[in-house]
Amino acid sequence: MFIENNKSLKKLNTFGIEAKARFFANINKAEDLLDLMQTSQYQDSKRFILGGGSNILFSSDFDGLIISSNIKGINLKAIDSEKALVEVGSGEIWDDFVRLSIKNKYYGFENLALIPGKVGAAPVQNIGAYACEQKDYFSHLSGIKLSTGEKLELDFDECQFAYRDSIFKHELKDDYFVSSVVYNLDKKWTPNLKYKELDIELKKFGFDFINQDAEYVYNTVCRVRKTKLPDYNEIGNAGSFFKNPIVSNQLKDSLLTLYPDLPNFRVDAENSKIPAAWLIQKAGWKGKSYGNCGVFEKHALILVNYGNAKGSEIKNLAAEIIASVESQFGINLEPEVIFIGE
Ligand code: EPU
Fold first, then answer.
1. Ligand 1 atom index nearest CA of 54
2. pTM of the full predicted structure?
3. Spatial distance between the Cα atoms of 335 and 40, rounded to a whole number of angstroms
4. Which residues lie below 8 Å from residue 274, measured CB to CB, with a gap of 6+?
5. Burial of residue 220, with CB atoms counted within 10 A of its CB: 0-12 exposed, 13-18 middle, 19 or more buried
6. Ligand 1 pocket residues where CB is under 6 Å
7. Least buried of 138, 179, 207, 333, by fewest C-beta within 10 Å?
8. What is the pLDDT of residues 222-244, one digit of tens each?
9. Substitution site in 241, 301, 331, 333 for ligand 1 pocket (most atoms within 8 Å of beta carbon)
């Protein structure tokens, strides 16, 4: 088992933050992890499992062991006229899996085009966009429970998926390594047009069900995303920095009297979701720079690294945004991005 020392993480996080891990190990197959568990670097260090680094902020160096999955493989496990059951290694790039699925005519994840990161992080974060979440086609996953070393399979209910949430952020936080995920994709394509903006964009160019296909939707989602999200190879970022807050209808109604243009979406009889981007923009942050980082000028939910930002600078910017949104609207924004370090 090869363990690297003082590994630079700059290329392993989409924010492009320079930080170092005291130890770093790549896992190519589930058995590598069992070997790693025998080492002193594993036993004596705090640990973090890194996916594609697209939802992480390294706020300092990491004085411990970073474990990264490089487990590959996309395999068809079962198929009939309705469904295709596909097992994907946790180290596969999410978007490669989505593109391969569409090519093979296995449908469902077109709306999750171009989401950065690896497959292993998809259930942890329950990634979502354009009215689709990975849980919509999730079957089960396999991995290793770190505290006991046992191989453990978890089904849909056991994963406790919710909005950008799962058991891996709670009971199994830092205690589970995902080796593969199994998705149950559709063989018959039905477009998911529930997200208004995507529906409008598709129909702009005369979308119809006969001449267009899942690939057309995939390409449209890519185009929409590219207009809002900076390419992290050019400007470091981690997509949406905050979750969209869910507030009581009472608070939403009182805010609506002050801000009649407040966008809001029904969650249930008592609660509504408010776009964090709207709150941040209204609080005056959109396009603002803050030392080496700032708020993206085309989308207020995206914090960007202009080049040499330290993780701590972005953390401070996030804290200022939280305080200003709290004081103006009485809403506490919660980061979607996970902070690693001090
Ligand atoms: N808005 C503003 N200012 C802005 C941008 C947006 O006021 O600068 C308002 C507009 O009212 C807009 C609304 O916010 O209608 C929603 O914006 P958008 O459609 O861009 O979606 P979002 O709620 O900001 C969420 C996800 C994204 C996902 C998109 C599309 C979260 C935290 N983010 O963003 O996910 O791509 O919907 O489904 O739920 C990610 O998680 O990293 C991510 C990019």
1. 42
2. 0.94
3. 33
4. 244, 245, 247, 252, 255, 262, 263, 264, 265, 331
5. buried
6. 129-130, 195, 197, 228, 239-240, 243-244, 263, 275, 277-278, 281, 286, 299-301, 336
7. 207
8. 999 999 999 999 999 999 999 99
9. 301
Residue 4 corresponds to which amino acid? E
Q: Which domains does the chain have, with CATH numbers?
A: 3-69 (3.30.43.10), 74-186 (3.30.465.10), 236-340 (3.90.78.10)
Q: What are phi and psi of 249, to 5 degrees?
A: -60, -30
Residue 277 CA, ligand 1 centroid: distance in Å: 6
Q: Cα of 290 to ligand 1 centre, how many Å?
A: 22
| Confidence label for 72 from pLDDT (cuts 50, 70 and 90) | very high
State which H helix or E strand residue 101 sits in.
helix 94-103
